[in-house]
Amino acid sequence: MSDAFTNSKEIQKAFIEYDRQAILNNVIVGCIIGIVLSPSGLLLDYYVYRPDFAFFLKLRLLCSLLISVFWAIVITPFGRKHPREFGVLLAFIPAFFISWMIYATNGVDSPYYAGLNLVLLVVGLVLHWTFLESLIVVSVVTVMYVSACILHGETSSIGLLDNLYFLVLTGIIVVTGSYFHSKARFREFALRYELDKNKKELEETNQKLVELDRLKGRFFANISHELRTPLTLLLLPLEALMQRFDHLPDDGTREMLGTMHANGMRLLKLINDLLDLIRLESGRMEVKSEPLVVEDFIKGLTSAVRQVAEDKRIKWETHVDPQLAAILTDRDKVEKIVLNLLFNALKFTPVDGRVELRAEKQGGDFVLIVSDSGVGIARKSLPFIFDRFWQADSSSKRKFQGVGIGLALVKELVEMMQGSVVVESEEGKGTTFTVRLPYQKAELPAKRETTAPSSAENGAAASEEWLANLYRRAELFPAVAARRGAVAPVQLGHRPTVLVAEDEPDMRRFLKAELDKDYDVLEAADGVQALEKALHFSPDIILLDMMMPEMDGLEVCRELRKRETTMNIPVILLTARADEETKFNALEIGANDFLAKPFSSTELQARIKNLIESHHFQRKLSKQNVALTSAIEQIKETESQLVQSEKLASLGRLSAGIIHEINNPLNFTLTGLFALRNKSKQLAPEQRREYKEILDDVEEGIKRVRDIVFDLRTFTHPGAGAGELVEVPDATQAALRFLSGEWKGEIQIEQNIPPGQVVWANRNKLIHVLVNLLQNSIDALAEKKFADGEKPTIWIEGRTQGDRSLIVVRDNGAGIDPKFLGKIFDPFFTTKEVGKGMGLGLSICYRIVHGYGGRISAKSEHGKNCEFTVDFATKDETTGELEINHGKSIRL
């Protein structure tokens, strides 16, 4: 029990009232025990303390008298209000007189010490005080005993301690027991109180449910009677119109009248079944036994359901036991039972299935067996199939219609006729219903001679006969419209296209007839067909029923909005539910409009027209936007190409003017290097090697400057140059030596290049590419702040894949922002600050690599790493074209 529950003020207040009476009863019992047991100690007084017998007799009688007075006070109105306070005082009366007797006898050695233990036991076992009250009583009794012993004098400390030990131990047991007993009593009361409260609430709720059920039954009975009257008045003129148009060539009118009549009969059958349930529940339905020729009865039912079976191409079989001739039973109820079972079997049996009806005599039972080869019933659903309004599939995607009345009516009718009905089923294999009714043999009914009635009787009888015939035809009418196969294909023309997705055939035909005048109408019988046809035909508008098999309207709409080709097609949802939640869900998933059934045909036409016109306008606007966007992109691309051409032309003019001036000082420097090499002979032998290495590095740098000038000229005047097989390890080492001053001691270089790996390129140009890539990595590493334990590292890997040779340069530097990754190979594009780069390095690499039939690509994780992959052929595969700017090419 939770603390919140036990601490409830309501329960605590109720417990105080309950406990007051219980405590009062306990106090009265304690008084009786005190009055009775106090004089009973006279025998002990006589044998142990005979000289004091008279004195002790007076004390005991006085104690009983005081307890009697106390009892009289407790049962007064004032005492009844405060039994707990008086109850604590009750224990002090016998304890006081026992302590007096201890004082008057031997003090510590007095045997009357045991009487105090009895008082404590009465407190613990009879009075049931709380922890605090028991503690007070035990404390006071202990003080009384110690005081009596001390006042007596000549007290032995050992004896006193010994007696106190047992007295205090008894007190501890009493106090502990009182604590747990008090708590247990409260918990028990709280549980009982809550149980009584729930029971009372349950009884009140049950009474309300009974009353509500009675009101519901009365309401359904009244509303059903009220519905039958206008429905009958609708069916009568409909049948008259059907007879009138039966000979006219207006197929559309005849079909519309047939649809109205069929659905009116379905509604009348539903109302009749509902009325039968109400009559059964109220006990107003009686069993009327009459002779029934079983074979004729079965033939009549066969003719009623044969059309439905033929529509679904279901094989229909009947078998009648020859022993059954005529029986005594209620024909109407048996007919309702069999028809409901047959229509249920036909509804759940697929095309080319089988339905069988057998009538047999088994012992003393008349047995009806309806079996089918349909979808079957899940084992977990079998206990519920005879429950009212229960359906195995109550979702919006269910394939089979119904309200869950038929089988419930079957069970109640069978039980009313003292019979039983059972079902056996296996999913995917079929279902068998077996009805057992008492068998009563009857004589074949004789033909009756009728007398001619009067004209007034003729009119009344004709009207009553027509009404009874109408109700019987409604009973024979299937509760669910037959599924008539796949929808017919439509040849689309130049008119707007409407897709109608509706699983109810009559509603689908009605919508098609209404829209066929102005639109090309596509039909879909379920959600899957609707989605497939929407994707295939891209209609101008889609009408979706909310509840359909396979996929409901909401799911179809959701899928349409996910697809690019259908996301803008207008959708109107049709449903019989018109609550706000349904409307909100429909609009939330992207439906353009919502129509609740029944709806106006004029309103539907207007909404379709408006949505189609809006859709066409959006299409035109979208096409114009696409064309405008394309034109803007072309203008931007042309502008970019013009700017690029101007940049290249300017660079060409600049390079043409300075290349000659740069080459002259380079040649002078190379001549000076030659003279410096000759001076090496004058140095000591141990200094010559270092001297030579310095001159080699200077010469390499000068050549590198010359190569850069050459590459600049190459960039402005493209030309791939002669190709050759270049060893990758050698070119890599040359590039690393050139940049050794920047990476040695600062950056860790890890190489994994297989010996003998070659590429088809130019050695100097390949070194140029590697130097640019390595320099790019060194710059990226310089921009990043590394955490403890992480070292700036460049990985250089090489591998061969078939006839391609790959070189990968990767670093753990700052990486490249994803928004710049697609522009890094563009000429003059750079993210560096002004004065730290021209944006030509990677562009030159791109032109060099593609000039030898290779490819270069980059991938990066911003802030973590960057990787460039250079892909060369291992033989000459150049085509004479150089690709630049991501797929655009210029002729060399």
Descriptive notes:
Strand 6 (420-426) and strand 7 form a beta hairpin. It is built from 24 helices and 21 strands. Helices cover 58% and strands 14% of the residues. The strands form 6 sheets. A 5-stranded mixed sheet has the order 2-4-5-7-6, covered by helices on one side. Strands 9-8-10-11-12 form a 5-stranded parallel sheet, sandwiched between helices. A 5-stranded mixed sheet has the order 14-16-17-19-18. It has 892 residues and is of the alpha/beta class.
What's the short version?
The protein is of the alpha/beta class and 892 residues long. Helix content is 58%, strand content 14%. The protein starts with a helix and ends with a strand.
- Shape field: flat
Overall helicity: 55-70%
How far is the first residue's CA from the last residue's CA? Answer: 91 Å
Main sheet properties? 5 strands, mixed
Present the secondary structure layout.
Blueprint: H1 3-6, H2 9-37, H3 42-48, H4 53-74, H5 77-81, H6 83-104, H7 113-127, H8 131-152, H9 157-245, H10 251-282, E1 290-293, H11 294-311, E2 315-320, E3 326-329, H12 331-347, E4 354-362, E5 365-372, H13 406-416, E6 420-426, E7 430-438, H14 455-476, E8 497-501, H15 505-515, E9 520-524, H16 527-537, E10 541-545, H17 553-562, E11 571-575, H18 580-588, E12 593-596, H19 601-679, H20 685-716, E13 724-727, H21 728-738, H22 740-743, E14 748-752, E15 758-761, H23 763-783, E16 793-801, E17 804-811, H24 841-851, E18 855-861, E19 865-873, E20 881-884, E21 888-891
Parallel strand pairs: 2-4, 8-9, 8-10, 10-11, 11-12, 14-16
Antiparallel strand pairs: 1-3, 4-5, 5-7, 6-7, 13-15, 16-17, 17-19, 18-19, 20-21
